[in-house]
Every structure is written in C-alpha cells, then in structure tokens.
C-alpha cells in the first residue's frame, strides 16, 4: 500500500486532501534526500582531492553538487556540520564493513582475523585509503549521537569497533573481553592511521605481524604481582 493510501490510526482510509499532503511531503523528502546525498558526495570528493588537509569551502561544495548556497544552508548550518555528517557516514561505513566481515567468518579466531583485516583494508586498498584518509583528517569533530554524550570522532569509531570484537575475543578465551576488544580496536585503528598518513601500503608481513600481535594479546593477563 502506498504511503498516501495507508489507513490512519482510526482504521479509516485517508481523505483525498490527506493523500495530497502525503504526496507533497513524500516528494519533498525525496528531493531533500537527493540534495543531501549530492552535497555529501561533493564534499567528500573535494576532501579527497585536497588530501584531507582542509575542509572544502561551501562555494566549492555547492558548485560541485550543482546546487545553490540556499540549498546548502537548508540542510546544514555550516561547512563544519556537513563535514561532521561526512565523517559520521564514513565511520558507519567502516563499522558496517567490519561487522559484515566478522559475521562471514567461521570461528572466533577467524572472526578476529577478519575484523582486523577489514580495518586494515582501509589502508591497503587505494580507493578506500584516499577516502578514509580524508575522513580521518577531518574527524576532530565530536560525535554527539550517543547516550554517553559527545565523543571525538576517532574515539567513537574505536568504541563501535570494539563492540564487534567482544564476541570473538570471548571465544578465544579472553579473561576481560571488553578491555581486550577495546585494545584490539585501538591497535588496529592506530595501525591503519599510521599507514594512511605515511602514505604507505602495509605488506602481507605487516598484516600477519599485526594479527599475531592482537591475537596473542587477547588472553594476556594484567601483571598484578607486587613491585619492589
């Protein structure tokens, strides 16, 4: 059933006037969605073009998107607001990809490997690397869509990735799964950033060493012996 023909809460079919309103709202929403996507795609392309060294100007964004300044400010209060939206979308894309790779792997050790490899894919794949570098270069924005309050973009990314590693590290015998998962996510993200900002591609040996290191650390016990 189309939106304009859905029954209201009383169970009655919408009137012709209500259908007209719904058609109008649906059309506006579709246009808004298209405009926002064009602005974000243009903004990301410009960020990649300048290597993430600075956020693009509003004038350049609207020109690349084929829209007007009025259209831009209809959806975003400032250039920083658009950049934050791009950073958030980029982070969600990475998290979604890592989640997919972990879910497709058989066994906790394989899932751990797949998750770390998926994070590092952002540095080893040329197309992904240019986009991820641009996004991370602008991720000084905070993420406010959480129950715990604002977080730096990188902190939010690590926290979300850490949640994906809890089940795999539990499966390989971690004694403190939440902490182990956070350390693995932090290590993998930091390693990814290292290669991205050095402009280097990690070798197979680099990746193998990283995985061996993170796998070994999942069961490491904190040294609680007395010192003196």
How would you describe this structure to a colleague?
The protein is mainly α. The chain has 2 domains: 65 residues, Orthogonal Bundle (Arc Repressor Mutant, subunit A); 142 residues, Tetracycline Repressor, domain 2. It is 70% helix and 2% strand. The protein is built from 9 helices and 2 strands, in the order ααααααββααα. A two-stranded antiparallel sheet has the order 1-2. Helix 5 crosses helix 6. The longest helix is centred in the N-terminal third of the chain and has 34 residues.
Quick structural summary:
This protein starts with 15 loop residues before the first helix and ends in an 11-residue tail after the last helix.
What's the structural blueprint in terms of helices and strands?
Blueprint: H1 16-49, H2 58-65, H3 69-75, H4 79-104, H5 108-124, H6 126-137, E1 142-143, E2 151-152, H7 153-171, H8 177-198, H9 204-217
Antiparallel strand pairs: 1-2
Helix pairs in contact: 1-2, 1-4, 1-6, 4-5, 4-6, 4-7, 5-6, 5-7, 5-8, 5-9, 7-8, 8-9
Tag the structure with descriptive keywords.
Tetracycline Repressor, domain 2, Arc Repressor Mutant, subunit A, two-stranded antiparallel sheet, mainly alpha, 228 residues, 70% helix, 2 strands, 2% strand
């Amino acid at each position: 059933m189309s939106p304009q023909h859905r029954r209201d809460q009383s169970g009655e079919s919408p009137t012709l006037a209500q259908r007209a309103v719904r058609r109008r709202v649906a059309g506006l929403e579709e246009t808004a969605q298209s405009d926002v996507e064009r602005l974000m795609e243009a903004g990301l392309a410009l960020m990649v073009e300048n290597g993430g060294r600075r956020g693009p100007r509003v004038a350049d964004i609207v020109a690349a998107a084929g829209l007007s300044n009025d259209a831009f400010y209809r959806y975003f209060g400032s250039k920083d607001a658009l950049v934050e939206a791009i950073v958030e979308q980029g982070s969600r894309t990475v998290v979604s990809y890592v989640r997919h790779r972990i879910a497709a792997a058989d066994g906790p050790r394989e899932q751990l490997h797949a998750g770390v490899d998926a994070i590092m894919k952002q540095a080893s794949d040329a197309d992904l690397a240019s986009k991820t570098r641009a996004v991370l270069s602008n991720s000084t924005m905070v993420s406010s869509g959480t129950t715990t309050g604002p977080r730096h973009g990188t902190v939010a990314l690590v926290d979300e990735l850490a949640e994906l590693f809890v089940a795999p590290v539990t499966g390989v015998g971690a004694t403190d799964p939440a902490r182990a998962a956070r350390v693995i996510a932090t290590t993998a993200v930091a390693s990814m950033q290292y290669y991205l900002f050095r402009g280097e591609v990690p070798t197979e040996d680099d990746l193998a060493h990283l995985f061996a290191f993170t796998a070994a650390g999942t069961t490491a016990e904190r040294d609680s012996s007395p010192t003196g």
